[in-house]
Amino acid sequence: MTEIPEDHPRYESLLTRHRIEAGVDAGITSRQGLIAQGRGEAFDYLLGERTIESADAAERAAAAQLLLAERPVLSVNGNVAALCPGELVELADVVDAALEVNLFNRTDERMEAIAAHLREHGATEVKGLTADGRIPGLSHERAKVDADGIGAADVVLVPLEDGDRAEALAAMGKIELVVDLNPMSRSAQAADIPIIDNIIRAVPNVTRHARKLRGAPREELDAIVAEFDASAALDDAERAIRNGTTQE
Ligand code: PTJ
């Protein structure tokens, strides 16, 4: 892999791209994941590769919602595992959530490789391998979940999701927190809390908010969630993208 000089103007973006490439080489990320990364990069470029204010508000609301949850689960796919494994493990610790591997292009080898990768980054338990539960209304591999994981969860963080599963999880009555750089995607539209931000910025920022909010009374957390307006956040992100990098 080519060494990227730290003073390169697009250092972060190139580093992210290399992480995905390394994920493919390690059998963690699917080849389709490269295409998904390209789509994400295009939206991120137009957002100015920064966390816009409405995304920060979504990240704070997501932190509050995770702290309020009885059985929160963070869903992990091949892109997310390659991009921010340690950060996900840290968030799971702070909000006391389970980590569950759930793949669109599911193979036993990739499931095992991702679970091992998360363990190498500090995870003590990784769900998803039992696959004794199903999401109703989905015919593909993403329907397979652990009955005591996503199956029983009340709140699920689903980063870089495909629209079908996001809609099916919403139909099951789960509270969905979606991270997706495309505010027009079906997943973002189906989310209770859509986070229109790059996963590499979003996860550490949700953790930062959760650390600050931990110990706050339930009423305060409830109020943060209630005040968050999903459709206004989606509109704001779309406006920022349409205006490109000139938007402040
Ligand atoms: O690992 P698997 O087998 O479960 O497959 C995962 C992928 C991502 C390949 C699969 O879910 C897929 O094909 O996803 P899509 O339909 O391409 O959707 C990915 C969405 O995530 C798109 O809307 C992208 O804009 C967005 N996205 C890509 N990279 C990032 C992102 N959003 C946030 N942060 C990113 N780094």
TrEMBL record:
It comes from Haloprofundus marisrubri. The keyword ATP-binding applies. Its EC number is 6.3.2.36. The keyword Cell membrane does not apply. This is 4-phosphopantoate--beta-alanine ligase. Keywords: ATP-binding, Coenzyme A biosynthesis, Ligase, Nucleotide-binding. PANTHER family: 4-PHOSPHOPANTOATE--BETA-ALANINE LIGASE. Pathway: Cofactor biosynthesis; coenzyme A biosynthesis. It is an enzyme of class 6 (ligase). InterPro entries: PPS/PS, PPS/PS_sf. NCBIfam families: phpantohe_syn_Arch, PRK13761.1. Homodimer. It catalyses: (R)-4-phosphopantoate + beta-alanine + ATP = (R)-4'-phosphopantothenate + AMP + diphosphate + H(+). GO terms for molecular function: acid-amino acid ligase activity; ATP binding. Belongs to the archaeal phosphopantothenate synthetase family. HAMAP family: PPS (MF_02224). One of its GO terms (biological process) is coenzyme A biosynthetic process. ATP binds at residues 17, 39, 180-182, 186-187, 198-199. Catalyzes the condensation of (R)-4-phosphopantoate and beta-alanine to 4'-phosphopantothenate in the CoA biosynthesis pathway.
